[in-house]
C-alpha cells in the first residue's frame, strides 16, 4: 500500500521547483514522479522543463524519496541514449529511480520532431521493440541490435545500474500487447483507468474497468508463468470520472483509494497542486492526504 505524488516540471528550480521535491520527501511520499514530455496539453504555452535534468536535480537534494517518470515514451526517445541517461540517474540517486514507460500518444510529443503521428499499430510495434532493447541495454555491458525501428552497435553501458539487475520498469498499458510487455518486463504496471469513461462514465464503471485491466494483466502473467502479485499496480489519479473529487478532502481520498486497493491497486499517485490548472487543489488537503491517509488505509 503505497502513496506517491506527481510533480509537473512547470516551476523554475530556484523559484519553487526545488521546494516541491523536498516537500514530497518531508511529507513521506513513497515516490515522486514527473511527466516526461516536451510539452503537455494545457501547459503547452507556459514553462515546462525536461524530465531527466529535473530528476537529476531532485536526486541531488533528496535522500530517501524514490524518483521516476510517468511516463517516458518512444515519441522522442531512443533506447541507447535513454539507457545512458537512466544509468546516470540511478547512480546520482544511489538506486532510487523507477522508469515509468508507455507507448506514447498523438499529442505534441508525437509531431514536434517533424514526423507524422504514428498509427496505433506502429506505436505498439515500436513499444514492443523499445522495451526489450532497453532492458538489454540496462543489464548488459555491450549490446548490438538491428531491429525494424531501433538499432544499437556495440552500445556500452558500463557500470550498469546501482539497482540490480537494473532499475525497475513501471509499464503503462491497457491493450493485450502492452499487458504482455508489463508481465514480462515490468516490476510495476501503470493505469489511468479507461480513457473512454473520463467524460461520460461513472466512478463505478471506472472501477469495473480497472478491475478488468488487472484481470487481463494477471492472465498475461499466467501465460509466462509469473505470479501477478510480483507486479506492483499503480493508479495515476486525475483521469477517472471522479476527476479532482478525491482531492477535495481527506475522507474523499481515503474512500477513493480504499475502493481501488480492494481491486488490487497497490500504489496511488496524486498530483501536487498547481493553481489555476486542472490539478488545482487545496495544499492543506494534499498534505493531509500524504500524512494521514496511509494510516487510515491500513485499518
Task: Describe the structure in your own words.
The strands form two sheets. An eight-stranded parallel barrel has the order 1-2-3-4-7-8-9-10, surrounded by six helices. It has a two-stranded antiparallel ribbon with strand order 5-6. Helix content is 40%, strand content 17%. The mean pLDDT is 97. The protein is of the alpha/beta class. α5 (176-185) links the parallel β7 (169-172) and β8. α1 (13-27) packs across α2 and α2 (51-61) runs parallel beside α3 (79-92). The chain has eight helices and ten strands. The chain has helices spanning 13-27, 51-61, 79-92, 120-139, 176-185, 203-223, 250-263, 283-297, and strands at 2-6, 31-34, 66-72, 97-101, 142-146, 151-156, 169-172, 188-191, 232-236, 267-271. It starts with a strand and ends with a helix.
Q: What proportion of the residues form beta strands (DSSP E)?
A: 15-25%
Structural class: alpha/beta
Gross morphology is globular
Quote the distance from N terminus to C terminus: 12 Å
- What share of the residues lie within helices? 40-55%
Radius of gyration: 18 Å
What is the count of DSSP helices, taking H or I runs of 4+ residues? 8
From N to C, what is the helix and strand string?
A: EHEHEHEHEEEHEHEHEH
How many E-type strands?
10
Mean pLDDT: 97
- Poorly predicted segments: none
Major sheet: 8 strands, parallel, barrel
Order of neighbouring strands in the sheet with most strands:
1-2-3-4-7-8-9-10
Explain briefly what this protein structure is.
This protein is an alpha/beta fold.
Amino acid at each position: 500500500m503505497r502513496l506517491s505524488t506527481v510533480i509537473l516540471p512547470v516551476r523554475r528550480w530556484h523559484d519553487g521547483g526545488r521546494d516541491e521535491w523536498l516537500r514530497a520527501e518531508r511529507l513521506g511520499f513513497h515516490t515522486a514522479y514527473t511527466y516526461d514530455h516536451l510539452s503537455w496539453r494545457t501547459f503547452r504555452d507556459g514553462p515546462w522543463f525536461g524530465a531527466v535534468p529535473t530528476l537529476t536535480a531532485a536526486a541531488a537534494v533528496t535522500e530517501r524519496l524514490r524518483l521516476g517518470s510517468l511516463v517516458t515514451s518512444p515519441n522522442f526517445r531512443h533506447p541507447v541514449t535513454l539507457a545512458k541517461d537512466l544509468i546516470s540517474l540511478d547512480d546520482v540517486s544511489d538506486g532510487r529511480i523507477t522508469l515509468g514507460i508507455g507507448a506514447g500518444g498523438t499529442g505534441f510529443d508525437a509531431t514536434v520532431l517533424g514526423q507524422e503521428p504514428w498509427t496505433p499499430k506502429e506505436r505498439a510495434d515500436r513499444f514492443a521493440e523499445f522495451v526489450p532493447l532497453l532492458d538489454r541495454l540496462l543489464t548488459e555491458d555491450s549490446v548490438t541490435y538491428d531491429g525494424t525501428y531501433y538499432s544499437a552497435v556495440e552500445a556500452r553501458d558500463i557500470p550498469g545500474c546501482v539497482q540490480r539487475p537494473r532499475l525497475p520498469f513501471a509499464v503503462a498499458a491497457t491493450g493485450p500487447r502492452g499487458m504482455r510487455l508489463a508481465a514480462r518486463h515490468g516490476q510495476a504496471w501503470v493505469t489511468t483507468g479507461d480513457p473512454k469513461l473520463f467524460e461520460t462514465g461513472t466512478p463505478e464503471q471506472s472501477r469495473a474497468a480497472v478491475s478488468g485491466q488487472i484481470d487481463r494483466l494477471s492472465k498475461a502473467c499466467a501465460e509466462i508463468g509469473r505470479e501477478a502479485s510480483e507486479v506492483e499496480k499503480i493508479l495515476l489519479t486525475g483521469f477517472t470520472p471522479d476527476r479532482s473529487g478525491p482531492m477535495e478532502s481527506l475522507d474523499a481520498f481515503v474512500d477513493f483509494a480504499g475502493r481501488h486497493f480492494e481491486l488490487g491497486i497497490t500504489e496511488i499517485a496524486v498530483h501536487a497542486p498547481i493553481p489555476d490548472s486542472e490539478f488545482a487543489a487545496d495544499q492543506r488537503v494534499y498534505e493531509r492526504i500524504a500524512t494521514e491517509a496511509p494510516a487510515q488505509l491500513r485499518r
